[in-house]
């Protein structure tokens, strides 16, 4: 039998970057990020309790969800594992705003994105973006934040050419 008689299939697997990084709770810093209940959060403050009867100091985290602004509290023993989301921000130029509030966006390299909707948080951000866009004759840039497979517009600016 020759090699031609066999049907070999080589499947490609994407190396795919992880959405989060495992870490010890005690290494997380104020201003950093952590996942709480599967949501990416920014750490507002940390207080550490003394070692207790069961031998672990506990970290009390006060955080805010980076996509909806809700405050979330969590307590984790400092030596126990938790995860930190990988958060990326990128700048995009608005090409169009559809009636269903989806945006057509372009980056500097000519890449296109049509699956981002106007933000729901904070409440006035979407209105401000629409007003800036409707004034015309100006370039409106938005900042898209991505973490844990979610993405949302978190800021915008007007660029006068």
TrEMBL record:
Positions in coiled-coil regions = none
Report the PROSITE patterns cross-referenced here: IF5A_HYPUSINE
Annotated GO MF terms: ribosome binding; RNA binding; translation elongation factor activity
UniProt KW Metal-binding keyword: no
Subcellular location(s): the record lists: Plastid, Chloroplast
Task: Return the InterPro entries for the record.
Answer: IF5A-like, IF5A-like_N, IF5A_C, NA-bd_OB-fold, Rib_uL2_dom2, Trans_elong_IF5A_hypusine_site, Translation_prot_SH3-like_sf
GO aspect biological process, one term: positive regulation of translational termination
Record PTM: eIF-5A seems to be the only eukaryotic protein to have a hypusine residue which is a post-translational modification of a lysine by the addition of a butylamino group.
* UniProt key word Cell inner membrane: no
Record-linked SMART domains: eIF-5a
What are the entry keywords?
A: Chloroplast, Hypusine, Plastid, Protein biosynthesis
Give GO cellular component annotations, separated by semicolons.
chloroplast
**Domain named Translation initiation factor 5A C-terminal: residues:** 86-157
Q: Which PANTHER family match?
A: TRANSLATION INITIATION FACTOR 5A FAMILY MEMBER
What function does this protein fulfil?
Translation factor that promotes translation elongation and termination, particularly upon ribosome stalling at specific amino acid sequence contexts. Binds between the exit (E) and peptidyl (P) site of the ribosome and promotes rescue of stalled ribosome: specifically required for efficient translation of polyproline-containing peptides as well as other motifs that stall the ribosome. Acts as ribosome quality control (RQC) cofactor by joining the RQC complex to facilitate peptidyl transfer during CAT tailing step.
Entry's family note: Belongs to the eIF-5A family.
Can you say what this protein is called? Eukaryotic translation initiation factor 5A
Taxonomy-wise, where does this protein's organism fall, top ranks first? Eukaryota, Sar, Stramenopiles, Ochrophyta, Bolidophyceae
